[in-house]
Amino acid sequence: MKKALLYIIWMVSGFAVLAQQVSNTRFVQDGKQVKIYYDLSETADVGIYLSTDGGRNYETSPIGHVSGHVGKRVPAGSGRCAVWDVLRDRDKLQGSQVCFKIKAVRQDGKQDITIGGVSFYMVYVKGSTFRMGCTSEQGSNCRDGEIPAHSVTLSDYYIGETEVTQALWNAVMGDNPSHWQGDNLPVENVSWEDAQAFISKLNQMTGRNFRLPTEAEWEYAARGGNKNCGYLYSGGNNIGEVAWYDGNSGKKTHAVKRKRANELGLYDMSGNVWEWCSDWYGAYIGGLQTNPAGPSTGSFRVLRGGCFENFARECRVSHRHNFMLSQRSIYWGLRLVLLP
Hints:
Elements (H helix, E strand, L loop, with lengths): L1 H10 L3 E3 L4 E9 L2 E8 L3 E8 L14 E3 L2 E4 L2 E8 L14 E8 L3 E6 L2 E8 L3 E4 L17 E4 L3 E4 L5 H8 L18 H15 L3 E2 L3 H8 L16 H4 L31 E7 L8 E2 L10 E4 L15 E4 L8 E2 L3 E2 L2
């Protein structure tokens, strides 16, 4: 038994830290247990996740046989200690590339993730049922593609606090395709296919499963999720307060987080740059839908939110746009989604 345990510990050879508030991670063997030490800068929900392929993929649920400083509302402090009863998970420890990561979720509902020195936040969105499309507050602005309004039920997810910035794109891809250059400007001039390549590489670097939002996830978040106040634009009815659009942008993009956030604390979901969604574009159908992902095939992908050169009408929360997935434009960027 002792030799087997030593072999397991030898395999468990690395950490991935997916929150800026977690630091100074280390582990030691203590008899039949592994003690995992780390420093936590603020109160957070903490879980430890296992990978058996060198960190390329992690289990979706945290390791169950862990005690100590894990779970809900772990208080901040140095020398936090989680104790893993590793022998109870020995059936999972197959191969020679076993490693684990610590994930901390802040109590304000944000995940703070750092890649190549660039930090970004993912905001928690509590799932619920909402009305999607041409709802009453959209009034006479509605277009045919927004009809009929219909009910959609969504599960919980995280969505990017901001559009993907040029700094984050460069940290992942090693380049910057944007026309207007600046670390805190949204990345633009990227196609749907470019967005997929970026997300694939980001997932390899983090061991997570980021993706583009579905159109329903995008609209629900833009409307403020379960805190929805029924605004015409994301965050308010006065577009100048919440968006960069034709009337105030000077015909160019602007740094993220300069306008007022919406009810969930999300910025620039109206205006600045259009945001790619995962769906093929298609006509709405009536009736209640659960976690819809759009048509199974199509010719164009969905874009949402409007941009710096659009009129206010195109920046509404229900407005839809579409284009070829291989086409690039200075008007198009992206925002990330992550499942809990």
